[in-house]
Amino acid sequence: MKSHYYVIVAILAVSLLLATTSPRIAISQAPEIVAIRVDGSLKLDGVADEPFWAEAPEVDVPLAASAAGGGHVSLVDIKAAHNGTWLFILAKWRDPTATIELEPGEEEQDRFVIMWHIRGPMMGYPCMQLGTNGAVTQGEVDLWHWHGAEDNPDSPNYGEGGKVTPPHPYAADQYANTQARSSDPGDSFWDIWARGKWSNGVWTLEIARPFTTADTEHDVQFEVGNTYHAAFAVFEGGSGESEAVKSTSAWYSLVISTGATTTAPSSLEERISNLESEISNIKDMISDLEHDVHWMEGASASLNSTISQLKDSLNALESELNDLKNSLKAAESGASEASDLANAALSQTNLVLALSIIAIIVAAAAIVIARRR
Question: At which of 192, 219, 249 does a domain end?
Fold first, then answer.
């Protein structure tokens, strides 16, 4: 009996250790996107023929699968500009088809999302909790979510299939924390202007938003000279990507420049330097993900071994319990001393059984935590 007790205590300790330790992805220095200062405004048409777009530095943002079945878009090109009161974002990515029509019950459509960190702990890698409606793993974020169907005037599903009449082409304004994701209330929902056009296998999306909004609690607020952290996601609806399945980036720093800037890479050497920096970031991302995979495999093997040992211990305990019940029946003839001994042994067995149940619960919790991380 004692040997089973010690085995279960040891298993319980291992399970607790696994449940409370996991790899952490370090936040490396984020690559930089510069929003240049320009005069005038943006003609929101998804064409991107404004002269200032030719002057704005282009940043190639690599993307990776967020989950199995994702990763169909490997790169999105980002440019940024501002006129002192509005921020402009230009995004371009390759997509062999334009998926902009939804049948009832369908969700697979082309999408683009910018995630802005607004407060709280910053996630090492921007991601959402699997199995939730979009809750993040740390902190609070503002989400600019453009849908190729509901938010696109070229789609029959525009305005959620005619349920609402948008005041202008838009991207949905959303907020998420560690509990849930939600749409911004009231007029704040329409703060983000957006227009996308698909042509010859390429999406061109222009986004504009005022520096400040009325909803200071849920919206990122911009100011000239400041730096903000953003991540990007692309959904290729034609390949079945939707919700948790998509292509995502690491964090990027977006700088709202203080003056006129026309510093698009002016030489091949500068371009090469930028690409080398981005390649280095990709390698860091791959290394972190490989470390995660290795850790998860080890944790899974340890937990499976723990469960197997618990099952063996429970089988042994059940056998001992049956023996004790038989002893108690024999002791009912009047052998009080034997009965007392059997009762004591039964109490010890119940204690060990309770410890076994606790160990199983802890092991199951560890599996859930390991999968979520």
Answer: 249
In whole angstroms, how large is the CA radius of gyration of the chain? 28
What pLDDT band is residue 302 in, cutting at 50, 70 and 90?
Answer: low
Model pLDDT, residue 284: 60
Q: Where in the sequence is the domain holding 57, given as residue range(s)?
A: 32-249
Please identify, among 216, 232, 249, the residue that sits at the C-terminal boundary of a domain. Answer: 249
pLDDT tens digits, 30-75: 789 999 999 989 999 999 999 999 999 999 999 999 888 899 999 9
- Token pair, residue 223, equals 């100011």
Q: What is the pTM of this model?
A: 0.65
* Sign, Cα dihedral of 342, 347, 350, 351: negative
Q: In the structure, how many helices (H) and strands (E) does the chain have?
A: 5, 14
Instruction: Specify the CATH number for the domain of residue 221.
Output: 2.60.40.1190
- What does the mean pLDDT of the chain come to? 77
Query: Residue 109 and residue 111: Cα distance in Å, rounded?
Result: 6
The two three-digit tokens of residue 110, written as one number:
């082309």
Q: How far is CA 247 from CA 61, 69, 74, 250, 329, in A?
A: 11, 10, 7, 11, 66
Rounded Cα distance between 317 and 320, Å, is: 5
Number of domains in the chain: 2
The whole-angstrom separation of Cα 146 and Cα 71 is: 18
Alpha helices in 33-169 (DSSP H): 51-55, 158-162
Q: Which residue has the higher pLDDT, 169 or 372?
A: 169
